[in-house]
Each structure stands twice: as structure tokens, then as C-alpha cells.
Amino acid sequence: MAKILIAYFSRTGTTEKMANYIAEGVRFTGSEAVLKKISQLKEEGDLEGYDGYIFGCPTYHRDMTNNFKTFLFLAEKAGLEGKAAGAFGAYTHSGDAPQVIADTMEYVLKMKLVSLGSFKALEAKLKSDDPETLKACQDYGKAVAEMAG
Ligand SMILES: Cc1cc2nc3c(=O)[nH]c(=O)nc-3n(C[C@H](O)[C@H](O)[C@H](O)COP(=O)(O)O)c2cc1C
Predict the structure, then answer these.
(1) Backbone CA torsion sign across 58, 61, 63, 65
(2) Tell me, what's the pLDDT at 117?
(3) N or C terminus: which one in the chain shows less Cβ crowding within 10 Å?
(4) 7, 16, 82, 129, 140 from 94: Cα distances, Å
(5) Are 110 and 78 in contact (CB under 8 A)?
(6) Ligand 1 test: best mutation among 10, 12, 60, most atoms within 8 Å of CB?
(7) What is the pLDDT at residue 136?
(8) Which residue in 140, 148, 146 sits closest to 19, CA to CA?
(9) What digits encode the pLDDT tens for the residues 124-146?
């Protein structure tokens, strides 16, 4: 059974909502999902002991937030090479953060990324609990857990 860490930041709660649906998808596979806000992850050791990692941050000003950049430096020190990886984050229009995080996980941290593909979760759709968007979150969690397992 794989153990997956879902580490996220959310300013107004939408990315947090995505994180919860992604965790459901992980659990559908029988894997364990551990949800943590990045403020709870302070040392490299806090990132140890997982088979897969899914990082989430919303897009503000076409970028990830500064605290998330700092968190990625911590992840770099944690030695996550070869581990299953995924990225997500709420946004309204450009959605830059999840793609930049995914690229960092794949090319810098050398993790095995589950491509974002058509995985899109726009804020308005999440707020209206659009079933397709919820399912996209669940399916993404499932795909990372399957790669990790
Ligand atoms: C000041 C401000 C700037 C934003 N900039 C962007 C942006 O550049 N691109 C985008 O897609 N969404 C942008 N958004 C929308 C947020 O990403 C969206 O509200 C998201 O759901 C917030 O996620 P959170 O609730 O997890 O904090 C912006 C929102 C605010 C308030």
C-alpha cells in the first residue's frame, strides 16, 4: 500500500478543496493519503517516508506564492528523486502555478511526474461542485497513487 503526501497552500480555500478530492482519489486505490499544509512541513525529515508526493498551490499574479517557492527548496533537499509526483492548484484563467510546480518536480527534483494532461480545475467549476471537476481531482490522485504503488 502506497503512502502519498499531499502538501498544499491555499489562501482562500479552493486549492484546499481540490486537495481533499485528490486525497479521496488516492484512497480509492487503497493507498494512504496524508494531507498537510506546507506551514506544517518545516524540515527535510518532514518529507521522508512517502512513496508519492502531490504538491498544490494556487496561481496569484501568474505565479506560485513565495512560501511555495521556499517549500520547493526544502523539497529539493529532501532527495525525492524517482518518486511518483503530481501537482495541482486552483486558478481562474491562466493557471501557471501547477504547471511550473510540475516542471520543477520533473526536471529539477527528478521525480516521476503524472502529467497534468487535461487535468484542469477552474475555480468557478469547483465552487459550483461541478461533478466533472471533482472527478478530475479524484482521478488525478488515483493516477499518482497507482504510479507510486
Ligand atoms: C490578486 C489576485 C491575483 C490572481 N492572479 C491570478 C492569475 O494570475 N492567474 C489565474 O489563473 N488566477 C489568478 N487568481 C485567481 C486565484 O488563483 C483563484 O481565486 C484561486 O481559486 C485561489 O485559490 P485558493 O482559494 O486556494 O487561494 C488571482 C486572484 C487574486 C485575488
Answers:
(1) negative
(2) 77
(3) N
(4) 22, 19, 29, 20, 20
(5) no
(6) 60
(7) 93
(8) 140
(9) 888 888 898 999 999 999 999 99
**In this structure, what are the phi and psi dihedrals at residue 11, rounded to the nearest 5 degrees?**
-85, -45
CA-wise closest residue to 141 among 13, 16, 18: 18
4 Cα–ligand 1 center, Å: 26
- Quick check: 69 and 21 in contact, CB under 8 A? no
pLDDT in tens, 79-130: 999 999 999 999 999 999 999 999 999 999 999 999 987 677 788 888 888 8
Contact 109, 53 (CB under 8 A): no
Q: Which domains does the chain have, with CATH numbers?
A: 3-148 (3.40.50.360)
Q: What is the pLDDT of residue 89?
A: 95
Asked whether 60 lines ligand 1 (CB < 6 A), one says yes
- CA 133, CA 123: separation in Å to the nearest integer? 10
Q: Is 39 in the pocket of ligand 1 (CB under 6 A)?
A: no
